[in-house]
Amino acid sequence: MSARNIARFWEWGRKIICVGRNYADHAIELKNAIPSEPVLFLKPPSAYVREGSPILLPFYTSNLHHEVELGVVIGKGGTAIPQSSAMEHVAGYVLCLDMTARDIQDECKSKGLPWTLAKAFNTSCPISDFIPKEKIPNPGSINLWLKVNDIVKQNGSTSQMIFSIPYLINYISEIISLEEGDLILTGTPKGVSSVQEQDELQAGIDGIVTMTFKVDRKS
Ligand SMILES: O=C([O-])CC(=O)C(=O)O
Ligand SMILES: [Mg+2]
């Protein structure tokens, strides 16, 4: 068997830990309070989808939203990783979409139910190619953008994150041990909006990566 390659981490079946409300402008647009501690939820590895395959609309939603996010790929696992050494545990990055059934999430929020149906369905985590750590020397100050059918919807800097990447690695690993091949989604800036069948989503990190996904319905 060939050696495992971190550049194909999504094939390893490791966990996806998502941070919500990590940009004040997005918390405000959805009328949520600005959090004093990170909001966490999970997606299963079956949520991954790669360019060339479509994002599939779940049958039970009529309001699927895009959320463009920086993903942090863990290269070295650990528990209670100190902030001071947190970046040593990072192998690289991916650009991610945290696809969200917003109508279902609103319903779950009002009923006090978990967000699983809103966030964890098949193809809810489109990702770009793996970006080695050296290509993004300062992940706390890069620009993420997303267009729907060529119209810019999201454009924000990771400098607006409430909780930094080292803070998140420390916070998460105190609660959930991190393993090689895990992915952390760091939250979305403002501009989330609804997508329809046949829409084309294009997203990028300035100067580093772009990716394109089509929205489709399961045939
Ligand atoms: O669904 C939400 O608004 C929470 C979230 O994932 C984010 O802020 O990125
Ligand atoms: Mg999100």
Write a structural description.
Helices cover 14% and strands 33% of the residues. The chain has one domain: Fumarylacetoacetate hydrolase, domain 2. It is of the alpha+beta class. A hairpin with a 2-residue loop joins strand 11 (143-148) and strand 12 (151-157). The model has no long low-confidence stretch (mean pLDDT 97). Bound molecules: oxaloacetate ion and magnesium ion.
Radius of gyration: 16 Å
Q: Strand order of the main beta sheet, please?
A: 2-1-13-6-7-10
What name does the CATH topology carry?
Fumarylacetoacetate hydrolase, domain 2
Helix tally equals 4
**CATH class annotation:** Alpha Beta
Q: Based on helices, strands and strand pairing, what is the structural class?
A: alpha+beta
| Uncertain regions spanning at least 5 consecutive residues | none
Mean pLDDT over the full residue set:
97
SSE arrangement, N to C: EHEEEEEEEHHEEEEHEEEE
Count up the domains.
1
What would the principal axes of the Cα set say about the shape? globular
What portion of residues is helical? 10-25%
β-strand amount: 25-35%
The N- to C-terminal Cα distance equals: 35 Å
How do the helices and strands line up, and which of them pair or pack?
Elements: E1 16-20, H1 24-29, E2 39-43, E3 48-50, E4 55-57, E5 64-65, E6 68-74, E7 90-97, E8 100-101, H2 102-111, H3 116-119, E9 125-127, E10 131-132, E11 143-148, E12 151-157, H4 165-175, E13 183-185, E14 194-195, E15 200-205, E16 209-217
Parallel strand pairs: 1-13, 3-9, 4-16
Antiparallel strand pairs: 1-2, 5-8, 5-14, 6-7, 6-13, 7-10, 11-12, 11-15, 15-16
Bound molecules: oxaloacetate ion and magnesium ion (MG).
EC number: 3.7.1.5, 4.1.1.112, 5.3.2.2
Pfam family, one: FAA_hydrolase
Family: Belongs to the FAH family.
